[in-house]
Amino acid sequence: MITDISSVVRTQEFAESLLRTLPSSMEYHNIHHTREVVEAAELLGKQGGLNSEELENVLIAAWLHDIGYVKSCQEHEAVGVELAKPFLDEIAIGPERTQAVIDCIMATKMPQNPHTKTAEILCDADLYHLSSDTFFERSESLRQEMKNNFGKIGKRKWMQGSIALLEKHHYFTAYGKEVLAPLKEKNLKKARRKLAELEEEESGKAPENHKPEEEIKKTKRPERGIETMFRMTSQNHFQLSAMADNKANIMISVNTIIVSLIISILIRKLEEWPQLVIPTVMLTASCLTATIFAILATRPNVSGGRFSKEDIHQKQANLLFFGNFHKMDLEDYEWGMKEMMNDSDFLYSSMTRDIYYLGKVLGKKYKLLRFSYTIFMFGFAASVLAFGIAAYYFPVK
Question: What is the predominant subcellular site recorded for this chain (predicted)?
């Protein structure tokens, strides 16, 4: 981990104090973007096997890489370096590390040209959004920023530029090439489709794959219907779970009462009535076994309680189930929820997984309850029959 966390914390405070002064017209290059880059840099740094000092250098550079925007939108990297130098001297990280931070910042200038491993990581972190599910949202924020500062840019022209960027860009790190590049390709395909739609709208022509209105209504996803389906399915699962718990409680109560009566009354009489030993053992074993299965049906099972940022990026975590986050800090959980809410596919897949695993739990519960009721039914019937046989053939004298 980081050797001197205070350097990163002080850098964060310094950078945020400057970035908060940016005007509202800076809709993309702002404190939110910088925080995203820092998170991505930390992920890529750990994936890239950086040592603690290298990782600290990358995080410091990530916090400082856009502070130049407080003075100029042109050559902001160089401006940012000039602003950063006095601060880097102040935190006394040394000339070699200061130069490493400066190299990282300057490498982010487009077109990116990193010469060190740490610079490669910051470059990939700076354009991490190209592979994210929020790419089009972030791209629109950048378009609005350019519009506010340099004049209007049409959506079609902007989309053409975004496609050109996606086509020319390549990640430098191994993680970027293996994990992020395929995700960027998906965004490229979506961008090409969006461009085709924009061109069709501007030309006033129907798309080549235009479908009749009736067919569009059939293929359009009914969002409200999906939400109702998820809500009703979840409610049904919870009701079934409550019913299973009630059935288990009934079985536990009945059997514990029977066992208590056997222990308190019948066992003391077995010396006088030895013929009732076998029926008593049968009844006790049946009730005890049925109780154990009923308890197993209601016994809670809690998982590890933690998820990683990698799980979120890979859409593998289900944040709707408390067992996956009960040991996490609130800040990490809020970040994960925001990532999920910004991605409708991730959200719906999480809800689907939640219902699926609720169903798996219900299946296990009802299976154990069936064993419990079956054992009680046959065991109780056999025990009563054994008591009857004992009383008939070996009457109490």
Answer: membrane
Residue 247 in tokens? 């059935």
Which of 147, 168, 203 is where one domain is finished? 203
199 and 227 housed in the same domain: no
Judge contact between 85 and 97, C-beta under 8 A: no
Are 104 and 243 members of one domain? no
Mean pLDDT of 151-174: 89
SS (H, E, C) the chain: CCCCHHHHHHHHHHHHHHHCCCCCCCCCCCHHHHHHHHHHHHHHHHHCCCCHHHHHHHHHHHHHCCHHHHCCCCCHHHHHHHHHHHHHHHHCCCHHHHHHHHHHHHHCCCCCCCCCHHHHHHHHHHCHHHHCCCHHHHHHHHHHHHHHHHCCCCHHHHHHHHHHHHHHCCCCCHHHHHHHHHHHHHHHHHHHHHHHHHHHHHHCCCCCCCCCHHHHHHHCCCHHHHHHHHHHHHHHHHHHHHHHHHHHHHHHHHHHHHHHHHHHHHHHHCCCCHHHHHHHHHHHHHHHHHHHHHHHHHCCCCCCCCCCHHHHHCCCCCCCCHHHCCCCCHHHHHHHHHHHHCCHHHHHHHHHHHHHHHHHHHHHHHHHHHHHHHHHHHHHHHHHHHHHHHHHHCCCC
Residue at which a domain ends, from 203, 237, 269: 203
What number of CA atoms fall less than 13 Å from residue 331's CA on the CB side? 1
Could you read off the pLDDT of 239-285 as tens digits, one per residue? 888 888 888 889 899 888 988 888 877 777 776 777 778 888 888 89
Asked whether residue 248 falls in the same domain as residue 320, the answer is yes
- Number of folded domains in the chain? 2
Q: Whole-model pTM?
A: 0.52
List the domain range (segments joined by +) for residue 278. Answer: 223-393
